[in-house]
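Design a sequence for this backbone.
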């Protein structure tokens, strides 16, 4: 019998263009007085813009301007960035990381695996189990979730929680409260999942209103939260949003037009500027299967203007009114999910089993509703951040904060980051940039 010989195929062939023309990265601190200039030139590939923006966002860099062009086989990016205090990037380690992560051996060739601070996955975290939860939000829900995990002898070592349009999505990292190891007992996980479903379901009988899962593989946490809420169709609830949730002055202005010359759809976004705004928009466009060919981003005082020239992955533009309306709604939701206009409470304490359950119970008993949260453990210290409003969705009275401070002051440090009055007059006071980011904490926790 004749032996069939298959032609040899070099598995590295797909990376040949990258090896011939490796990415070029420059970090320039001399061209501009008030910002650092980061330039990236690379062979074009699907998703490369999101990968680059993700790295800059995970370093908590503020993008004040950006110019993107990726028509054809080459990708060129220029970013004007500062740190979260508005200063140039002068730290040698940060600059070295940027050059390596965006360079030939970095993020743009190896995917998200090089940045451990934003992963979700049961098998990728070693001593931690990652749980995804999504359902209808209500005051005190985070406290109830924390109490269940504590009662079942799970210790919460990190979590990130978003709420939008009365929906809640969270990724929670847990381990066994005695062994401090990941939990892989299917019976124990099944009991936890069922109890969490019951809590998330509340008084509703519809099984579709709640989902829990034990995450597998690698996903950036912020991107995963966007994906969860997008799949939950939270953008369709915008009609239910009250003025308390998102005042008119904060609503993004988004238009979709057609560029006749180059046959692109042009998405224009104008809204209040904030950290990670570009990541949220690019992430959503990518997950909606749109490709960004050109873009221009700028900040004008408290506002941001962003323009994206896009097509669908199949090469089509947005031709129907329904397609344009869906993109506008989805981008509005992506922008608003990370907006938290309540008080920001930062709590630091020595870590112990049940700490999150205790803290969220105290918040609930003082009539505070958590709209967004970041929880992590660094060594023996627990660092928790909660954005809160009162149970009706209004600004929190400072008397409540003082009562809260007296109740927990003897066991942990409490810092209030926003004055409720600033949320009442956004046009005159501007939008204060948050000085605290969950990305840094999760990076330290998972490193």
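Sequence:
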């Amino acid at each position: 019998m004749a032996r069939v010989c298959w032609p040899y195929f070099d598995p590295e062939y797909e990376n040949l263009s990258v090896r011939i023309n490796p990415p070029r990265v420059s970090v320039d601190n001399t061209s501009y007085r008030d910002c650092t200039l980061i330039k990236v030139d690379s062979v074009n590939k699907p998703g490369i813009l999101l990968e680059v923006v993700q790295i800059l966002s995970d370093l908590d860099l503020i993008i004040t301007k950006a110019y993107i062009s990726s028509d054809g086989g080459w990708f060129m990016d220029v970013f004007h960035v500062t740190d979260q205090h508005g200063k140039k990037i002068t730290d040698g380690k940060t600059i070295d990381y940027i050059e390596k992560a965006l360079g030939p051996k970095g993020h743009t060739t190896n995917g998200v695996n090089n940045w451990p601070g934003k992963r979700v996955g049961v098998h990728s975290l070693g001593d931690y189990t990652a749980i995804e939860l999504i359902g209808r939000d209500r005051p005190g829900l985070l406290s109830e979730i924390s109490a269940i995990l504590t009662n079942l002898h799970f210790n919460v070592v990190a979590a990130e929680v978003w709420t939008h349009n009365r929906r809640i999505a969270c990724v929670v990292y847990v381990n066994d409260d005695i062994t401090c190891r990941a939990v892989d007992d299917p019976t124990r996980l099944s009991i936890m999942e069922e109890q969490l479903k019951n809590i998330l379901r509340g008084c509703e009988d519809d099984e579709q209103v709640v989902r829990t899962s034990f995450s597998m593989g690698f996903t950036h946490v912020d991107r995963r939260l966007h994906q969860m809420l997008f799949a939950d169709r939270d953008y369709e609830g915008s009609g239910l949003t009250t003025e308390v949730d998102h005042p008119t002055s904060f609503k993004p202005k988004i238009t979709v037009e057609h560029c006749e010359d180059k046959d692109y759809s042009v998405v224009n976004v104008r809204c209040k500027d904030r950290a990670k705004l570009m990541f949220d928009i690019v992430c959503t466009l990518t997950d909606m299967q749109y490709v960004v060919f050109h873009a221009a981003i700028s900040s004008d005082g408290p506002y941001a203007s962003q323009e994206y020239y896009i097509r669908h992955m199949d090469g089509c533009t947005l031709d129907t009114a329904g397609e344009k309306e869906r993109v506008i709604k989805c981008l509005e939701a992506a922008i608003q999910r990370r907006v938290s206009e309540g008080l920001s409470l930062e709590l630091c304490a020595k870590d112990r089993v049940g700490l999150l359950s205790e803290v969220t119970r105290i918040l609930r008993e003082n009539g505070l509703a958590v709209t967004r949260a970041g929880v992590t453990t660094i060594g023996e210290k627990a660092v928790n951040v909660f954005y809160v409003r009162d149970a009706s969705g209004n600004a929190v009275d400072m008397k409540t904060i003082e009562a809260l401070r007296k109740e927990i002051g003897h066991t942990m440090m409490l810092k209030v980051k926003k004055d409720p009055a600033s949320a009442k007059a956004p046009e005159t006071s501007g939008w204060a940039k948050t000085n605290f980011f969950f990305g840094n904490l999760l990076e330290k926790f998972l490193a």
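The chain has three domains: 21-114, 118-233+340-446, 247-337.
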